[in-house]
Amino acid sequence: MPEILLNTNLEAEPPASASFLDAVDGALAGCLAPALERLSITLSANPAMPTPAWRVVPWLRFAAERWRASSASSCTDRRLRLRPEGLFKALTELVIGGVVEGSELSNLVCTQCPRLSSLRLSGTLVAFADVSIHSDSLHSLSYRVSNTQRLEIVASRLEELAISVLTDETHILISAPKLRKLSWHGTYDPRYHQFSDVAQHLVLLEIGQFEAASLVQQFNEVDLMKLKLQLSFSRGVKVEYQSFLDATKKMPKCKTLNVTLSSEYHGLASVILHLFRSCNSMRKFSLELRHHGLEHSCPSSCPCCTEDSRRIDNIDLGSLEEVEISSSKISDEELEFVEVLSRCSATILKKLVINYEAPPTPEAKEIREKVRSTCRINVEVEFYVFPDGGPSGRRVRLD
């Protein structure tokens, strides 16, 4: 039996749950196979039926002795703290969610899993603590663990890294010379977050919050860069917009720039033109607009309202071949941006794709004609609508 999968009835009454634990013990005690490729045990997460840690520890010991080439998943709640024991010589994939000790987590990754290739961590530490992840085998790491005081990652073969910074002052030190994909969610502050040895050319850089936009300045070249920007009045309209300008004044050379923008305040054309000035080497630009129903006008003193913010004579888009815009509504600002784009120096622009997240109404056809009349004649315009009324459904070309 290369795999053993034991799943409890999540809706069972407490007596049934207790009998399930006994059934697991019996199944593992009766297993004569010298090696297993997979062991999966699903427990109820009902707070009224907590699983004692002493019942789980023997299962982990069994796994450590039998795993040949496998993955492991441990999901716990605050009533269960696991202390994995033994050496997991063949373990290549590990997922841990729930409550763990910082020192035990470090020890597990650094000393007990010599062949670990993929590691996903989520949940919380029992108390504020430091976590060290030193590995010569790790290729992929996802880290989202609260109560982390200091995180040190030293991984010579790490290629994919996803980090969620859950506190502003979590100290993070990363050494990953072969890093190719980085996904960063949360704030970024170079005083606390440092890259000591990381490749300067990434295949993917994904930044999930505006507060981390300045992270782009750490790299020289990115094939695909994804930025999520939410510009609002949270810190004062002028202060926030200036922060956006400073954070993105220097951007790496990239082939594709994908921007998700949530803004009801600053001029769309000014925001995108600034990104064009900072990143003019891209071949494709993708813009996803998220509207929240609140529309405000910036004061005339805001930097996004100045004449310089809308200048196009200092923008060279000589490499740009395709632009894609997705929006739930096409407002005058979107049409203005298309008009400004048509006047920019984008000599090889071939295609403009509009994803209008609405059914094929007469209004959609009217907008399509406005877009086509604005673009140069040598630019192919593809206009898509969503008959089911949303971006999650199928899209059809409106012709």
Automatic annotation (TrEMBL):
<protein>
    <recommendedName>
        <fullName>F-box/LRR-repeat protein 15/At3g58940/PEG3-like LRR domain-containing protein</fullName>
    </recommendedName>
</protein>
<dbReference type="Pfam" id="PF24758">
    <property type="entry name" value="LRR_At5g56370"/>
</dbReference>
<feature type="domain" description="F-box/LRR-repeat protein 15/At3g58940/PEG3-like LRR">
    <location>
        <begin position="65"/>
        <end position="195"/>
    </location>
</feature>
<dbReference type="InterPro" id="IPR055411">
    <property type="entry name" value="LRR_FXL15/At3g58940/PEG3-like"/>
</dbReference>
<dbReference type="InterPro" id="IPR055312">
    <property type="entry name" value="FBL15-like"/>
</dbReference>
